[in-house]
User: Fold this.
Amino acid sequence: MLLTKVSFPTTNIPTAAYIHIPFCRRRCFYCDFPIAVLGDRRRGEASGTIRQYLAYLCQEIRQTPAWGSPLQTIFFGGGTPSLLSPTQLQQILTTLDQQFGISADAEISMEIDPATFDLAQVQGYRAVGVNRVSLGAQAFQAELLTRAGRSHQVEDIQQAVTTLRQAGFINISLDLIAGLPGQSLDDWHASLVQAINLAPTHLSCYDLTIEAGTPFSRQYKPGEAPLPSDEMTAEMYRLAHQLLTEAGYDHYEISNYAKPGYACQHNQVYWKNQPFYGFGMGATSYLAGNRIARPRQTQAYYRWVDAKQQVEVEQLAQQDAITFDTTTDLLDSLMLGLRLKQGIHLAELGDRFGVTTVEQIWRCLQPYQQQGWVVLENAENFPLSGTIRLTQPEGFLFSNVLLVRLFEVFETEQILP
Ligand code: SF4
Assistant:
């Protein structure tokens, strides 16, 4: 681990905020997110649990120092943010605006689940400023949805998209999961085709991960039936790339596809390893080079807010230099930056970590060039300029192999010849 003193230029002022809304009607069988289960009836103002949570959430926002620039992106994730009423969403947005300011053209996204909203509700979300929604479709087969513990039906997905469009939403993303138990390549093909037919502006295709402590982890073993084999998972990845790029979507990040102009602005902050505020139970913020994770349990989070632990962040903000783990920052930058189609600009990397490090990174990755997984482009003045990026879809598919190699080299500070 290399510890150095670094300064934080004004470009490192956060302009993105993640807000965690930790409520769901029930817990899906694969999910280990920090959430509280409300059942089918309690939601919005009728839920005392939600009202109490919003009071703490807004308290946390108010006691977080502003760094001086208005927010350009806000992301309501969950959980199921659509269990909040428009008025409750407005309460959070007003608090953010008073504390940090919100740009007039800010991207304001919210995750939303089929069968959790009606037309008046989503019209309300639009009226308070939400301009992008991410709909948790996951699959278009009733049996797969049931087996995953989802609380919506296949027909709810189409209905949700229709309702969102009636409310005036244009920027609609759909989430799909590949590798569900019992999911065949034909099922995956059918889900992709049905998703494309709904013509969203953006699609996220995630591989199922079996998380410890979930019902899935007790029932299934990765790579063993009824979960798809590794080869099948790879075929699913290639199929998504083929069908979605043929349909005009840009494969701009390992798991994400967008029509031109509709890449998610908020998530690019993460992938570019830029700072962001995080608020709410289980949320992580990244300020002044420090990732601060909030407690994942409701009562622990309330105690954390009451103890005003953000004071630590305030102290960091007032320092012009802090002790910083350069190795972790470098590995985060590589791990996140290589997820993007545009790859990593060597000039930026060199400015931050030095040209020797850039040369070492390329020596580490160069062997994978012959396999067609990584390319070095526009590098006439290497290592002072150029780009390293993974190829699509093979480089994206095998990104873990390259990352493991980078971690081996840099975590042990091994100097390559
Ligand atoms: S809706 Fe999302 S956050 Fe809620 S339980 Fe299901 S996967 Fe988890």
About this structure: The radius of gyration is 22 Å.
